[in-house]
Structure formats: C-alpha cells, structure tokens
Amino acid sequence: MDFRVGIIGILNRTFPGNLDAVYSRFIEDAASLGEELGFAVVSAGKALDNLDEVRVVLDRFRRESIDFLLVQLCSIASGKIMEVIAKAGFPLGIWGLPEPADEGAVQLNSLCGLNMFCSIIRTYLKNEPIRYKWFYGSRQDREFIDRFRLTIKALKLIKQLKGMKAAIVGGIAPGFLNVYADRRKLEGRFGIQVDELDFSELRDAVERAGVGDAVKRIAGEMEAEVDAVSADVKDKLEQNAILYETIDRFARDRDYRCLAISCWPRFRMELGVMPCSVYGRLTDHGIVAACEGDIEGALSMYILRALAGSSPMIADFTHTNPEKGAIQYWHCGNAPVSCGKKGTVQLTTHFKPGSRITCGDDEKVGTVYDMVFAAGQYTVFRLMDDGTKCLLISGEMLEDELGPGFDGTRGWLGNLRYDHRELPFWALVQTILTRGIPHHHCLVKGDLVDELRECMSWLGVQIIEPIEYTNTIC
Q1: Which of 152, 203, 206, 385 has the highest Cβ tally under 10 A?
Q2: Hey, what CATH class is 165-463 in?
Q3: What is the pTM of this model?
Q4: What mean pLDDT do residues 152-162 have?
Q5: What residues does each domain of the chain span?
Q6: pLDDT digits (tens, 9 = 90+) for 232-276
Q7: pLDDT given for residue 160 in this prediction
Q8: Are 370 and 384 in contact (CB under 8 A)?
Q9: pLDDT at residue 362, rounded to an integer
Q10: CATH code for 4-161?
Q11: Is the CB of residue 378 less than 8 Å from the CB of residue 362?
Q12: Residue 394 forms beta bridges with which residues?
C-alpha cells in the first residue's frame, strides 16, 4: 500500500489499568483500520514511556517515510513526550480512550491526556507549524471511524498531489487578470509541479496532425457519446477529434494530469476551432482541462475529481433567480458529457460566431457541448489567492422548474448551503462580490463538503465564510 501510517502507543505505568492489554488492542485496531481504509501500518514495536525511545522511533519513521503519525494515549503520559512528537514534522493524530470503568480508581486517564496534549500544541507550541487532529472513542464507535476515515481520505489526496504535474499553456486569456496565480506559491503549498508553456507548442502539434485511424475512431466515439449532433458540426468532428487526440497525447507524453489552457480567443483565431467539448472529454478521460489559463481552477477540478471519483466542471457565476434562491452556472460548452442530463447533451457550434482570423464574422465555429446539468446534490469549490483561500459551498441542481437556461453547458443551483447550513441567496452574492472570488467556480456531483474542509485544514487553506448581506459597503 502506498499510504503509510506510523503508530505509537504511549503510557504511564503508574496508572492501574491493564496497559499491556490496551496497547495490544491498539495494535489489532490499527491493523484492522489499515485493511478497511487501505493503508500500511508501521509500528513502533512496543508501548513507549520515555523520551529516548520515542526519539529513536521517530527517526525510524522518518527513514521509512510515513505519511501520518497516529499516537494513542494508552494512558496519560508526559507532556514532554508530546512536545517531541508534535515537533517531529508529521501530520499528527492523537487518540484518546474512554475509561474502562465508571467508578473506583481512574484506570487510564487517557481523555485527560488527550486534553493536555491538544492544549500543549495550542498554547505552549502555538508558534510551531503543527497540524493535528484529535480522536476519541473505541475502534467500533461510529463517531471515531467516521472521523478517522475522513482524515485518511484527505491525507491520501494530499499525498497524491505531491509531484503531480500540471501545465499553463499560453498564459491566462486576455483580460482574465483575476485567474492569475503565482505558480511558485502553488508548488510550495500543494507540492505540485506547474510548467508554463507557450501556446505555439500546442498549436504547432495540432497543425502537424493528420486524420488517421485514431482520429476517425475518436470522432465516431464523440458522436456516439451524445444525444444529438447539430448539422453545423457534423463535418467538423474529425477536426475536433484531431484536437482531442493531440492534446491528450501532448499531456500524457509529458505526464501532465492537469491543464490550464488559454483557449479564448486563441483557438478560434489561430486554429479556426473551439476546444470546449475537447476539454470536457479530456476531463471525462482523466486529464483535467480548465479554460482560459485558469491554473487554480484546474487544480480545484483535480482535487474534486480525486475526492469524488467522477468528473468535475468549471463554470461561470452567470445568472440569478433571487425568488427561488438559485444561481445559474454556465459556460460555453466545456462540461464533461458525464455531467449532463440524459437526453439534453448535443455537439453544436459555439454561441458566439467568428472566424479564424477576424473573430468577428458570421462563421459558426465548433465544437462545443450543449447540455443541462444532471439534477442532484453538487459541491462548489474554488481555490484563490495563490491557493491560500477557497470558496466551498453546496447546493442542489434543480430539475426543470426555472427553464432550460442559456446555450452552452448550464444548470440552476438552488437550496444553497455552507457547511451543511442554509446559505441565504444574497449572502452568497455578497460574499462572492465582496471577497473578490474569481468568476470560474468548479462543481462536482455529490456532497464533498466534509472531505474538502478536512483537506483544506491539513493544507492550511482558509475556507471563506459567508458575509451577511447588508445595504452598506463592506
């Protein structure tokens, strides 16, 4: 297993509980958790009660490159031990246990130890960059397992990010200044690698490509994947397939999992095509592609895909229905087919006509998806400010009650919520406009609020809290 959890049981043998039995149960519990949640257990080998032994084990854990350190308080132990463990540099879990009896002598005092150790980190070590999470209860307790499962899922994603390669191709789209991000800061916070490439590298590859068997096969697949193909683009599917096959190979040859490409208006002007449907299909097939050079949007989509196991999309904050408390998310036609409501997905031309050279005549340029988003629960997520902050809300994509929406890929999101609590419509508007959240928001089907809150906490990313709506300037 790629994910490795180091485990240490610490204790104080002056307490009368059966501490050896408690530690043995800890070893058994850790093994069963590893089997259930998919991680390898790296054990200290025995219960520890002095600093020298703890230091030796921590050094070994560093050599063995553990990803998470889980410390169980088999009984209360010395705060000096906690100081050494907390400063070891690992993501840290501290597990306290209930007392085995309700009366008589205190057997373990584990909860008190948990309280003390958490307090030491928050007070005595408050200036140290320590990230930890507490756990309390028995292995079989639902509160414990739900809390622990969330942590493992989040930390696995964070490990997956380490070394992930992404690319910005062509910089940001002209005028889209709010989606600029400092790639060096993203690399430092998330452990990713972000390359900056000239658009000509991709353009030249597309212009060299021909119509071979692979392109013909892809064109046929693209037609078969949708509910309809408009007459305007039937003769352009092979052109679109060339674009898909070229970008897919371009990314895979360089091991890019995440692309932010300056599509508008360069594809239209320099290649006579729009890449919107290609982006959606790439995302459906494992290469996350974001519009207009938006690297934070691309990274947000990658995180959503990793957590949800399904395709995310990027869309604009475009229209509102205050009476229904709903917002219409829309974009030109880049949402993956898997996000569309059955019966509504078609391949068609871009809503704005324009030619290869002038971008201003009446030539219809393809190829884009047109669809209504499938109904259901959605999570909306967006990194910003060089990855230091994020938008995180949820809602329900409404069925048909507000009409079909604009041409392109779109849907009405209502029943808005923040951290599982109702989010007033005007509070969301106030928050987005006052906090300067970029207009590209990333959506995925399902409720991933808890998973994202956990991930962002471990990464040190601030989740933007809603602002109450007022008539005064904020």
Answers
A1: 152
A2: alpha beta
A3: 0.95
A4: 98
A5: 4-161, 165-463
A6: 899 889 999 999 999 999 999 999 999 999 988 889 889 888 999
A7: 97
A8: no
A9: 55
A10: 3.40.50.1070
A11: no
A12: 379, 417
